[in-house]
Amino acid sequence: MARSFASYVCQSCGARTRQYFGRCAACGGWNTLVEQAAAATDNRRRRPVGAVDPAEPQGRPRRSEPIAAVGDRPLQRLASGYGELDRVLGGGLVPGSLVLLGGDPGIGKSTLLLQCARTMASGQMVLYVSAEESAQQVKLRWRRLAGLAGALAAAGPDDVVIEGEPDGAAKGVQQAGLQLLAETDLELVLQELEALRPAVAIIDSIQALHDGELGSAPGSVAQVRECAAALQRIAKRQHTALLLVGHVTKEGLLAGPKVLEHLVDAVLTFEGERFASHRLLRAVKNRFGATHELGVFEMQGSGLVEVTNPSELFLGGAGPGTATIVACEGTRPLVVELQALVSPTSYASPRRSATGIAANRLHQILAVLEKHLGLPLSRFDCYLAVAGGLEVEEPAADLGVAAAVVASYRDLTLPEGTVLVGELGLGGQLRPVGQLDLRLQEAARLGFRRAVVPRTALPASLARRLDLQVLEASSVAEALVLALGVDPAQD
């Protein structure tokens, strides 16, 4: 019989060790090792590979087949009822796929999925597994989101059915094609999936499920891995689109082992500021679509509402130290406003603060401006912020950052209706960026009439068709002269 032994598993990365340490040697996390009992492997139990018949010709496949002979199956996606979510997924839910949705507590993950379940239930069977809330709690939220409080009070007893057993077993709530199961036992969840065979299943959350055959606590590495693997097998077998809700750690990363992210087909993150109403849905991984896509929602009293024109969220009034850029999140262009404040420093070393843009990127741009324009920015404090709380990571915002900083330093205001797009090199040159045509189309749609861009092979017919004046520059000095109308290097 296999001898059991104790091992320690990291709850952040899944690394395993035979001895306890305060710090994980693999990921560097402190106090993340948890003791877990495991059985020693017995290699004698493995089935031996059959002997090869000498008369059988070599090179003949047993189970594989040529890739050209694999049958084609049309990919029919399921609409979630929300265009922003379908956009991030690449067109909708793929049957048999696993989608992991993560986000901070209270950001609206359960609200988004319950709204999608209510919409999808009108056309197909949807199973909502609530492993953290009771059936009554989910029903109260469903009433509020659906706006059916008055209708439910006047409805008959057959419209909403609440089932329960006195011993506290699984409880369900049924309305049309939406089935609700409040359960944490993995075996009961798998039995319900086998019995219903829904088109879409939602697990809220994967960390709350518990496999009774494992001795570890719910939410541990072993529990999360085994529960997700069991759900994946049944989803692939009966072509059920599975949506998993995942918790995040205090560092903002998805909790559980990294194997969970490799196991699923798509990883979505739900982001938002505490004091802002808008929510951003990003695709970090997607096997059926483009990554780094962005969907925008707004949290209101009736739930999450789609924002069809997100550029309006990130635009404000013009003024000194303000510049407008066009950032691309996946295939979606967003017109974003940058604000800069440059003031004389009162300290030995000036302060540098950036919100929404990497601080190292700001330091690099300030060094380029001081070197090639001769501006004494090393004696000034500099503060930079992206309006609306959006995170801009791409280098196409460099020219907008430089224009906002110089405009604040010279107390200038950029001409109305001007956008800036370009990457700054360390030598002061202006480098081209990708998807320039999409950026210019979005700027023209919002009413902008001037665009300062790097010198590139841009078709002249595009500018005429968009009714947009495109000003091309090869260096940061030339671009700032075109944008501001004056030479910033001259006092």
Word description of this protein:
- By secondary structure, the chain is α/β, with parallel strands linked by helices.
- It has three domains: 1-41; 83-150 and 163-308, Rossmann fold; 312-484, Ribosomal Protein S5, domain 2 (2-Layer Sandwich), CATH 3.30.230.10.
- The chain has twelve helices and 23 strands.
- The strands form five sheets. It has an eleven-stranded mixed beta sheet with strand order 6-7-8-5-9-10-4-11-12-13-14, with helices on both faces. A four-stranded mixed beta sheet has the order 15-16-18-17. It has a three-stranded antiparallel beta sheet with strand order 2-1-3, with no helix packed on it.
- Helix 2 (109-120) packs across helix 3 (135-146) and helix 8 packs across helix 9.
- It is globular.
- Residues 39-46 and 148-174 have low confidence and may be disordered.
